[in-house]
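Both lines are given unchanged directly below:

***
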Amino acid sequence: MILKIIFLFFATILAFWISAICGGGASLILIPILNLFLPSSFIPFSITIGTLTSSASRVVVFKKHIYWKVFIWFVPFSIPAVLLGGWLMKYINPLYLQVIVGLLLLANVPELFKSKREQKEEEKPYPNFILAFVGFFAGFISGITGAIGLLFNRFYLRYGLTKEEIVATRAANEIFLHSIKLFIYLLFGLYSENALLLGIVIAIAAIVSSYSVKFILPYLSEYLFRKIGYGAMVISGLFLLISTSQNIIQKENVSVIKNQHNETTMNWRNSSFVLEFAIDEGFEIERQIQPNELPPEYKSKYDQLINQYDQVFLEIVYRIGSNVSYEFYCYKNNELTKIEFK
């Protein structure tokens, strides 16, 4: 356990260095690491302790660079959203939202290939209602996953802020979010002793990182700063998508096997799905069902067929733009008769 804590400490220092240089990302870097230590529902608590400490220390270090217009429109709309996200955490599996976040981060790939002139042309202040919307969305995502920085880094970069303004303004915006989240997690019992311990380790490492990174930023140009930011978003998105997908496969019992009809099926939790493509009918999704799930008119047909065959297996079929249909796989003397009702 001691070695794991030491690893987490130095990984956190590095993550918050990268976070400051890229305009965000420490939380998304730490989520896959914390997945090795904690259940997914406790990870936001540990991250929030660390990021709250990091934001507070960055405000102290870079306070003269805070861009107050963004702060004034961002924070009021983010507060109710983080309350909503924190409440929904009791009902939503954060792993699925992490997949969405990973895909959104990967959408920044085109930004890596834009020239300095193209990037400069895209930079302009957003209208106030956009600031309010971004604040609300950031609060909602943060309330569920505990991480927002890197996902909304594109917003800060395109607003035209300098690297110091990005670090300072984002930190000021997030102090309120992290404080509210911490209260919500404590209120709903979304924490543990291990989560608290790891959160303290992250917090101490974050302070060390915040005070040391001010010596690094002056050596980076604005253009390089932005390229690193977009690159970090893409890499973190790929890393987050892979690690979260592995967790979902393991925890949701996802597997791909052959069923009794020699079809390749995907199992998820207690359900099985078949994805097919037919030239005349397009994509189909099939799911095996029980007789009691049939509509009354097809249940009577099943009752007739079960007396004529040794076994009858049932599937419900979904097609885009078509009504639901049902397939009956009827076996007698090891011979299959397939009947479809639409």
Q: What stands out?
A: Residues 222-251 form the longest helix (30 residues). The CA atoms of residues 102 and 240 lie 6 Å apart.
